[in-house]
Design goal:
Blueprint lengths: L5 H12 L31 H14 L3 H17 L6 H14 L4
Helix pairs in contact: 2-3
């Protein structure tokens, strides 16, 4: 998305203030995405460039954003460490598919 220039914003504000803005209520518009159910916290992790590219490639192959894939991998790892058997089916399926494709299946 290209940001608007100051001149464009000023012109739009002036037109709105002058009542020159019209609305088309019959037009169907896409609503913004629903916010995530839980707020996210940024977690900085430093990895070598080659590893970062492998993660991005795996995310592309899975058809998900790489941050989502990394969250799922973290969830799986922590679940395994805790001996907890509760994990979402989607995360489990993606992990199995990734392991099978990468040759890391047991």
């Amino acid at each position: 998305m290209t940001p608007y220039t100051d001149e464009q914003l000023n012109a739009a504000a002036t037109a709105f203030a002058a009542g020159q803005v019209t609305y088309d209520e019959s037009k169907i518009v896409a609503l913004p995405p629903v916010p995530e159910t839980e707020p996210m916290v940024a977690l900085g992790v430093r990895v070598p460039p080659a590893l970062a590219q492998r993660v991005r490639d795996a995310a592309d192959q899975a058809g998900v954003p790489y941050s989502q894939l990394v969250r799922e991998w973290i969830e799986l790892g922590l679940t395994e460490m805790a001996g907890d058997l509760t994990v979402s089916v989607a995360v489990l399926r993606r992990a199995i598919a990734h392991a099978a494709q990468s040759g890391h299946a047991a």
